[in-house]
Amino acid sequence: MTGKQRAMLRSMANTLEPILYxxxxxxxxxxxxxxxxxxxxxxxxxxxxxxxxxxxAREAVQALCEELGAEPVQCIGRRFxxxxxxxxxxxxxx
Length: 94
Hints:
Layout: H1 3-13, E1 20-22, H2 29-42, E2 44-49, H3 57-68, E3 71-76, E4 79-83
């Protein structure tokens, strides 16, 4: 992913609300399944790591991206953004 593509995705993610929360149990199979479903439906998702989570946001985004084949877009504080093109209906043109 180029810098311009990443910048475009960051600007699109600016208005998004977090739809995936990682809690005190960290990344469990249910979290991975939900992230996979959300990425397929939206392509670009914002996630939030809650206070009791044993992982930092950077660790969480790396683990989820490796597991799901997604690209990390941005990580600020406890929030991060991931992108993966939809298999069925791609919406975002890079």
